[in-house]
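Structure first, sequence second, as always.
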């Protein structure tokens, strides 16, 4: 399960406008501890391209759709940036998939 899927199942407002197809940056998350960030697989070129478009990008930024739960990530803490860059009309709030 990805962090995007987990967020949607737990009513956490993490958008995911492209339905995890690596075509947006609206599921941008910030890994709060470098120790956990270093346990993640390296981001692909496609993920890096989308992260370049993310609001509030930092050194431990990842896309929630690409962070997959696994035992060694137990205890990971993620933060959501204050905004996303989305081309949707103001006030539009997509439903989780």
């Amino acid at each position: 399960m990805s962090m995007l899927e987990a967020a949607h199942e737990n009513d956490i407002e993490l958008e995911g406008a492209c339905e995890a197809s690596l075509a947006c940056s609206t599921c941008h998350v910030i890994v709060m501890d470098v120790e956990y960030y270093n346990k993640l697989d390296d981001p692909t070129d496609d993920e890096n391209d989308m992260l370049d478009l993310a609001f509030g990008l930092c050194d431990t930024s990842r896309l929630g759709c690409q962070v997959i739960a696994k035992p060694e990530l137990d205890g990971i803490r993620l933060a959501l940036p204050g905004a996303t860059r989305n081309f949707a009309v103001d006030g539009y709030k997509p439903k989780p998939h």
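Margin note: The longest helix spans residues 3-9.
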